[in-house]
Design goal:
Oligomer: single chain
Length: 825
C-alpha cells in the first residue's frame, strides 16, 4: 500500500545529474498519450466460481434489507489506528485494515504477538456481530499487508521479498509459500492478505522494485495464479477461512511499476498496447485463478489517476477481464483524483472502486458518501453493485460462518513453515561471480564480516514489523536465523571455525571471509533513489572488502538488496559474489548453498537466475530485455553455478552518475553533512566539533551566545517532501542539550515561499547533559504553514542566546509511533 522528471533513460545512457523528486501527479496536465482504455484490445479472463445462484440469491435478499447507511458502510474501510470497535455501533463499516505501521489494539506492532492480533480481530468482530436492534450482523473482512509472509506479526515466517522469489523461477514453490502465508494470517485472526503484487518494474530506481517478481511480464504471469491459489485455495474451494485460506488481493491495478523516473505514485506514460502487454500481464491468470479482490494503484496512466479511471477499473477489469470480486483502493489514494479529497470522493466509486481505503478520514468519507448517494451523485445501482461484490466475497470466503478453527492456533513460525522459507532462500540466490572461492569448506577458519551479517532487519527489509522495516532488533524475530548464525552452524557441523566480526578485524588470519552487506530497509516512497550506485559517496562495504583483500584473504560477498544495483567496485574486490536479495527470516538458506562439506564439495548448487537485468553503469535506470540498446552487466536469466562456472573479469568502476545526487534524507550524520548538503551558521553562532562522544560517531556543538541567529543545513535544488509528509515521515534530531533555551526556538524548512515555522522551544529546555532523540512529523511543518514542495534547506533552526546544544544527527525516518508535533499542532 502505501511524481515526474526527466525522460526515461535507455540502455547504456548515463546520468550526469538528476531532478529533485517530484510530488504526486494529481492532474491530467502530464498526459502524453491515451487515458481512456479500449477493453476489446485487452486479454480476456473470467472469475471461475464467485457467482452462483445460491450466493446471488442470499446477497440479493440481504441488500434489500440494507439502509443507505449500511450499504455505504460496506464501501468504507478504516485503519485500526483510527477506529475503535465501539465505533461500529454508529458506523456500520464492512472492513478494517492494519496498515504497515498500525499496531493491534493497545499494542505495539513491532512487539505484538499473535495473541494481540487475534484479540483485536475478535474485539471488532464482537461488536459487528452483537445482538442489537436493527443490526444485520454482516461480518467484517480484516486485511493486512502479508506481502512476504504475515510479516507484521511477531514470530511469523518471513519469506524472501518478491525480487528474490522471481529469481527462483519456481511457480510450484510459490503456491506453497501462499499456503503458509494464508495459514499464518488466518491463525492471527485476519482474513485478507494484500497480495500478490503483480507489478512489472521497469525502472530500478523505484522504491517498490523488490515487490515485483521480475521485469519480465511472462514470469510475473507464471507466478500470479499460483500465489492466488496458495492464498485462497483452488477455485471451487468452500469454507475457505475455516480451511486456513484467506482472500487474496492482486495489486496494484495497474502500471505502478512503469512510472516515469521510477517515482512512486507517479505517471506511467506508455501507449495502450504496451500498458496491457507489460503491466497487465499478471491479472488474467490471477482472475482465472479466482482472486477475490484487486487493489487499485496510486499511479496515473498518461496523467489520469487509476483510482478515477472508469475505462480501466470497470471497462477492462470488470468487463473484458470478467472480474467478479471487488476492487479496493489504496491508502487514501482516492484523494489524489482531481476534485477529490480523502474525505470526499464520489468520482472513485463512480469509476468502479468498490471499497475505499480511508484509514484516517473514514468518518467524514462515510458521512459525505451517504449524503452524495441520497443526492444521486453516486447512483444507487453503482452502490448496490459495489455492495454485492463485497458481500459475494464475504460469502465465498466463509465469513458468514462464525467458525474460525485456525484462529489462535500455534501455527506461526512452525518448523514446517520455516522449511518452506528456507527452501525459497536457497533457490533465490544468484551467483554473479566465483573465482574458485565457493563453496566455502566447512572445515575452514571462516571470518564472517559486514554490517548485515547478524542483522535480521537488513535481511527482511521493508514491510516487516513496520512499514519501512527499520528499527527492528534481532530479538523481535523469535525463531528466525540470521545469515551469520546459519553460516556458524554449517561450519561447526563440518568441523571448522566461524568468527563474527562486523568490521572485519581478526586475531588469527582466516582462510576465507564472508562479507554480508547491502541496502538499509525501506518501503514505498523512501525507497525511491536517484542513482543505482550502491553506497554512493560512502563506500563502507568496499573499504572493508579492500582491507581484507590487502590482507591476502579470499572474500565472498553476500549482497542484500531490493533491486539490481551498480556494485562493480565491490564485485572487483570480491572473489565470489552472491545476490541474496532480501531473504527474510531464514538466513540459514544461504549457508545451505555457499558452505560446502568438510572437503569443499557443494551440499547443494545454485539454481537461481536473474529475473532483473543487472546494470553496467549506475545510470542504467531503465534496463529491460528487449529494449533498444540493451547492454547490461549481467543479462536477464544470468546465473552461475558450481555445475556451470564462468569467469568474470575486471569491471569498469566509472559509475557515470554524480554520487551526491543520491542523498535526499541524511542532512547531518557521523560528524559531517553528506553531499549535496552543507552547514551554514550566522556569524554570532559558534560551531565546534564535539570531542569524546561515546554514544555518537561525530557531532557538532552549536552555541548561541546572545541575540537572534540562524543555523541551516541546505544545498539542494529543491526537494519535494509532500509525499513524505503524507506518509508520516519525520525529521529525526539526535542531540545533547548543554545550555537550555531561555527564549523561543523555531524549526523551519526553507525554499519557495516558506514563511511558517514550528515552535520547538520545548525540545530545547529541561534536563541537560543527556543525549536525546526526537522525531518531528513532517506534517507538523505543513500544519504550521511550511511549504514542502521545494525545500532547499531541510534543517533550519532559529533561536536567541543563550543556547548551546550538540547535534549528532539530522535525517528523515519513518517511525510514526514515536513521532511528535511540538508546539501544540
Amino acid at each position: 500500500m502505501m511524481r515526474l522528471g526527466m525522460a526515461l533513460l535507455l540502455g547504456t545512457t548515463v546520468l550526469v545529474g538528476a531532478p529533485a523528486l517530484a510530488g504526486p501527479d494529481t492532474s491530467d496536465k502530464a498526459a502524453t498519450g491515451p487515458t481512456v482504455a479500449h477493453p476489446e484490445q485487452w486479454p480476456q479472463a473470467k472469475s471461475p466460481d464467485l457467482v452462483d445462484p445460491e450466493t446471488e440469491a442470499f446477497v440479493t435478499a440481504l441488500i434489500k434489507k440494507m439502509s443507505i447507511e449500511e450499504k455505504v458502510g460496506q464501501i468504507v474501510q478504516a485503519d485500526i489506528s483510527y477506529i475503535k470497535p465501539e465505533d461500529l455501533r454508529k458506523y456500520p463499516l464492512g472492513s478494517i485494515l492494519a496498515g504497515g505501521n498500525s499496531p493491534p489494539l493497545g499494542g505495539d506492532d513491532r512487539h505484538a504477538p499473535q495473541e494481540a492480533w487475534v484479540k483485536t480481530a475478535r474485539d471488532f468482530r464482537a461488536v459487528a456481530m452483537e445482538d442489537r436492534p436493527g443490526n444485520l450482523k454482516i461480518p467484517l473482512i480484516f486485511g493486512i499487508d502479508a506481502v512476504h509472509g504475515n510479516a507484521n506479526v511477531n514470530g511469523a515466517t518471513i519469506f524472501p521479498h518478491n525480487v528474490g522469489l522471481g529469481a527462483m523461477h519456481d511457480p510450484k514453490l510459490m503456491r506453497r509459500i501462499g499456503e503458509v502465508t494464508a495459514a499464518e494470517t488466518a491463525a492471527s485472526g485476519i482474513e485478507w492478505a494484500f497480495g500478490p503484487t503483480l507489478t512489472v518494474p521497469q525502472n530500478d530506481r523505484w522504491g517498490r522494485t523488490y515487490e515485483g517478481y521480475s521485469e519480465d511480464p511472462a514470469l510475473v504471469a507464471s507466478y500470479a495464479g499460483e500465489m492466488v491459489i496458495g492464498l485462497q485455495g483452488a477455485p471451487g474451494t468452500k469454507d475457505r477461512i475455516q480451511k486456513g485460506y484467506v482472500a487474496a488481493s492482486s495489486k496494484h491495478f495497474m502500471g505502478d511499476g512503469g512510472t516515469t523516473d521510477g517515482i512512486d505514485q507517479g505517471n506511467t506514460q506508455v501507449d495502450e498496447a504496451t500498458f496491457a502487454r507489460i503491466h497487465g500481464a499478471g491479472y488474467p491468470p490471477a482472475i482465472d485463478a479466482g482472486t477475490m479482490t484487486v487493489m487499485a494503484s496510486y499511479n496515473s496512466w498518461n496523467g489520469a489517476k487509476m483510482h478515477g479511471n472508469k475505462s480501466l477499473l470497470t471497462g477492462v477489469l470488470k468487463g473484458r477481464m470478467g472480474f467478479d470480486g471487488f476492487v479496493v483502493g489504496d491508502w487514501n489514494a482516492h484523494g489524489q483524483i482531481p476534485g477529490c479529497k480523502t474525505t470526499d470522493c464520489p468520482a472513485t466509486i463512480n469509476a468502479g472502486l468498490d471499497m475505499v481505503m480511508a484509514p484516517d478520514g473514514w468518518r467524514e468519507l462515510f458521512d459525505n458518501t451517504v449524503r452524495e448517494v441520497k443526492k444521486g451523485k453516486i447512483p444507487m445501482a453503482r452502490v448496490d453493485d459495489a455492495v454485492r461484490r463485497i458481500l459475494r466475497v464475504k460469502v465465498k470466503l466463509g465469513l458468514f460462518d462464525p467458525a474460525r478453527p485456525l484462529e489462535g492456533k500455534p501455527l506461526l513460525g512452525t518448523p514446517e513453515h520455516r522449511a518452506v522459507a528456507r527452501e525459497a532462500v536457497a533457490e533465490s540466490l544468484v551467483l554473479l561471480k566465483n573465482n574458485g572461492v565457493l563453496p566455502v569448506k566447512a572445515s575452514a577458519n571462516v571470518l564472517v564480516a559486514g554490517a548485515a551479517a547478524d542483522s535480521m532487519q537488513m535481511q527482511t527489509g521493508g514491510w516487516t514489523l513496520s512499514w519501512q522495516g527499520d528499527g527492528n532488533p534481532n530479538d523481535l524475530f523469535p525463531g528466525g536465523t540470521t545469515i551469520w548464525k546459519g553460516i556458524r552452524d554449517a561450519v561447526a557441523a563440518g568441523g571448522g571455525k566461524a568468527t563474527l566480526s562486523a568490521d572485519g578485524s581478526f586475531a588469527e588470519k582466516p582462510d576465507v571471509a564472508i562479507v554480508v552487506f547491502g541496502e538499509q530497509p525501506y518501503a514505498e516512497m523512501r525507497g525511491d533513489i536517484r542513482t543505482l550506485e550502491f553506497q554512493p559517496g560512502d563506500k563502507q562495504a568496499l573499504a572493508l572488502l579492500k582491507k581484507l583483500k590487502a590482507a591476502g584473504i579470499p572474500t565472498v560477498s553476500v549482497f542484500l538488496s531490493g533491486r539490481p544495483l551498480w556494485v562493480n567496485p565491490e564485485l572487483n574486490a570480491s572473489d565470489g559474489f552472491v545476490a541474496a536479495w532480501l531473504p527474510g527470516s531464514e538466513g540459514n538458506g544461504i549457508a545451505d548453498v555457499i558452505v560446502g562439506d568438510g572437503i569443499g564439495r557443494p551440499r547443494r548448487d545454485f539454481v537461481g537466475s536473474l529475473s532483473y537485468s543487472w546494470p553496467k553503469t549506475a545510470g542504467q535506470f531503465v534496463l529491460n530485455k528487449g529494449q533498444a540498446n540493451y547492454d547490461p552487466q549481467f543479462a536477464l536469466g544470468y546465473g552461475l553455478s558450481y555445475a556451470r562456472p564462468g569467469a568474470v573479469g575486471a569491471l569498469s568502476e566509472e559509475s557515470g552518475v554524480d554520487a551526491s545526487m543520491a542523498n535526499t534524507s541524511v542532512f547531518y550524520s557521523r560528524g559531517a553533512t553528506p553531499a549535496p548538503f552543507s552547514f551554514a551558521t550566522d556569524s554570532q553562532v559558534t560551531r565546534a566539533v564535539a570531542e569524546g562522544q561515546a554514544q555518537q560517531e561525530g557531532a557538532v556543538k552549536l552555541s548561541w551566545p546572545s541575540g537572534p541567529a540562524t543555523v541551516r543545513i541546505g544545498g539542494t535544488s529543491g526537494l519535494d517532501l509532500t509525499r513524505e509528509a503524507n506518509g508520516d515521515v519525520s525529521l529525526r534530531l539526535t542531540y545533547k542539550l548543554d545550555t537550555p533555551a531561555t527564549g523561543p526556538v523555531k524549526l523551519r524548512m526553507e525554499g519557495g515561499a516558506n514563511k511558517g515555522a514550528i515552535d520547538a522551544t520545548s525540545l530545547f529546555t529541561g534536563q541537560t547533559g543527556e543525549w536525546r532523540s526526537v522525531n518531528i512529523f513532517l506534517k507538523c511543518y505543513v500544519q504550521n504553514g511550511v511549504d514542502l514542495t521545494r525545500v532547499s534547506a531541510p534543517f533550519v533552526i532559529e533561536a536567541s542566546g543563550p543556547l548551546v546544544f550538540t547535534l549528532a544527527e539530522a535525517r528523515l525516518v519513518s517511525d510514526p509511533n514515536n513521532s511528535v508535533c511540538p508546539g501544540g499542532k
